[in-house]
Amino acid sequence: RSRLRVQVVEGWLLARGVEMAESGDGGSQVKLGEETIPHKLQARDGVMRFSFAQELKCETGRDLVVEVSGG
Question: What is the pTM of this model?
Answer without folding.
Answer: 0.87
